[in-house]
């Protein structure tokens, strides 16, 4: 059978994730030091795991409300109010999802009609453009640069807004660059959203991972923005809970209602034991989270210092757990650089081009990896760069 003709055109048009392709090369190699996968190296703190186990012991093995357990939504609402300074009604303005991944997908599907444009800053997380395309939207990227700290400048954003634009999609701190947005930039973006009557989707999954005592600022908390913002957050990164598959969306009731319609038919609900673990994370998880953040902070400082010593110009990222050194001086493409680094030194980093064309010339190194491994990886990288 000719399966090509059987696959939906918009799905067929989407390339596979560049990260996945690269990690197929890593598979099967012995002794690789990986700064590749964007996942905490910590196991979920014990008290959170225990809450999931206890949930099972109590025989809680059922579906929950489509929106998620009300007790969890109440905890989320309180947490979001304390942390992001935005007040959401747990009964109608919070939806518990299967990771931020699902929240991104259903938010886009809930809002887009075919051909509607979504503007996002790039380099960006690998799922954004494909998710927009799968929701029949048009993905419009705005290049961010090292010189601008990889933040989205309102002036550049204004240049790509058209009558077809529906959504501005933000991600600060950013995967893969670790970029954060200044208050001034967020205010400028908010002004444009209001002027053009646009929805802002903001993926703030790394918001707790801010360094140098800087506080996270959410665009949702700026005047006039709650009513037009979908705030996406989850448990994977700050609480080291990737395998629990739990996230949430906070937004005005009509938007949550529309997202819920897709969620209830596609997912029904998020797993109950993960939801119970998430309540524990929100209520008692802060000390462990701060400990993990402090550890990432130390690793970031070490990694940025070493990369600059090696001669790979690297900006100091304000958040997340990625650095994004400039490898253009090597004369290699990001894919060639990453492939040779793997083949010659057994160190895995992700080519910047996996995060969109504007990531070319850079490399993503994730520092959610043991300190000793980071140290060894940098020694190997130094040797590799010295040979070029
Ligand atoms: N958003 C960003 C920016 C990410 O980096 C990731 C995972 O790497 C996700 C969303 C997916 O998160 P989740 O595990 O909650 O689906």
Question: What can you see in these coordinates?
Answer:
The protein is 41% helix and 13% strand. The model has no long low-confidence stretch (mean pLDDT 96). The longest helix is centred in the last third of the chain and has 25 residues, at 286-310. Helix 5 (99-111) packs across helix 9. It starts with 8 loop residues before the first helix and ends with a helix. The chain has 388 residues and is of the alpha/beta class. It folds into two domains: 3-44 and 287-387, Aspartate Aminotransferase, domain 1; 46-285, 3-Layer(aba) Sandwich (Aspartate Aminotransferase, domain 2). The chain has helices at 9-12, 18-26, 46-57, 70-84, 99-111, 128-134, 154-160, 183-195, 253-266, 272-284, 286-310, 334-345, 371-387; strands spanning 33-34, 94-97, 117-122, 138-143, 165-170, 199-203, 229-234, 247-250, 322-323, 347-348, 350-351, 363-366. The radius of gyration is 21 Å and the shape is globular. It has 13 helices and twelve strands. Helix 8 links the parallel strand 5 and strand 6 (199-203). It has a seven-stranded mixed β-sheet, with helices on both faces. The structure holds pyridoxal-5'-phosphate (PLP). The site of pyridoxal-5'-phosphate has 13 residues, from helix 5.
How far is it from the N-terminal to the C-terminal residue, by CA?
48 Å
How large a portion of the residues is in β-strands, by DSSP E? Answer: 5-15%
CATH topology category name of the largest domain: Aspartate Aminotransferase, domain 2
Structural class by SSE content: alpha/beta
Radius of gyration: 21 Å
Helix content: 40-55%
Q: Count the E strands.
A: 12
> How many separate domains?
2
Largest sheet: 7 strands, mixed
Shape: globular
CATH architecture title of the largest domain: 3-Layer(aba) Sandwich
Q: How confident overall, as mean pLDDT?
A: 96
Spell out the helices and strands N to C. Answer: HHEHHEHEHEHEHEEEHHHEHEEEH
Strand order of the largest sheet: 2-8-7-6-5-3-4
What compounds are bound to the protein?
Answer: pyridoxal-5'-phosphate
CATH class of the largest domain: Alpha Beta
Pick out the low-confidence regions.
none
């Amino acid at each position: 059978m000719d399966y090509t003709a059987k696959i939906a055109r918009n799905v067929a048009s989407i390339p596979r994730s560049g990260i996945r392709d690269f990690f197929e090369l890593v598979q099967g190699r012995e002794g690789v030091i990986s700064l590749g996968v964007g996942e905490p190296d910590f196991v979920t703190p014990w008290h959170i795991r225990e809450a999931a186990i206890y949930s099972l012991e109590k025989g809680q093995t059922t579906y929950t409300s489509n929106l998620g357990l009300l007790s969890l939504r109440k905890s989320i609402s309180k947490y979001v109010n304390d942390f992001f300074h935005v007040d959401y009604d747990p009964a109608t303005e919070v939806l518990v999802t299967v990771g931020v991944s699902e929240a991104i997908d259903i938010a886009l599907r809930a809002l887009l009609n075919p051909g509607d444009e979504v503007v996002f800053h790039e380099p960006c997380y690998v799922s954004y453009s494909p998710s927009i395309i799968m929701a029949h939207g048009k993905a419009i990227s705005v290049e961010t640069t090292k010189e601008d700290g990889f933040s989205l400048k309102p002036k550049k954003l204004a240049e790509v807004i058209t009558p077809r634009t529906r959504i501005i999609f933000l991600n600060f701190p950013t995967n893969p660059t670790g970029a954060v947005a200044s208050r001034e930039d967020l205010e400028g973006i908010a002004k444009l959203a209001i002027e053009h009557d646009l929805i802002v989707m903001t993926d703030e999954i790394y918001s707790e991972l801010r360094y140098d005592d800087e506080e996270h600022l959410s665009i949702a908390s700026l005047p006039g923005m709650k009513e037009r913002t979908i705030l996406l957050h989850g448990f994977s990164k700050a609480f080291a809970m990737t395998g629990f598959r739990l996230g949430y969306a906070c937004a005005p009731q009509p938007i949550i209602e529309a997202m819920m319609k897709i969620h209830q038919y596609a997912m029904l609900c998020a797993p109950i034991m993960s939801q119970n673990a998430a309540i524990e994370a929100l209520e008692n998880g802060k000390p462990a989270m701060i400990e993990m953040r402090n550890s990432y902070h130390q690793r970031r400082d070490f990694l940025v210092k070493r990369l600059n010593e090696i001669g790979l110009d690297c900006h100091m990222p304000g958040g997340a757990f990625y650095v994004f050194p400039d490898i253009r001086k090597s004369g290699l493409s990001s894919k060639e650089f990453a492939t040779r680094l793997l083949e010659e030194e057994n160190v895995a980093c992700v080519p910047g081009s996996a995060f969109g064309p504007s990531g070319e010339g850079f490399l993503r190194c994730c520092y959610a990896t043991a300190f000793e491994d980071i140290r060894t990886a940098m020694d190997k990288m130094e040797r590799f760069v010295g040979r070029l």
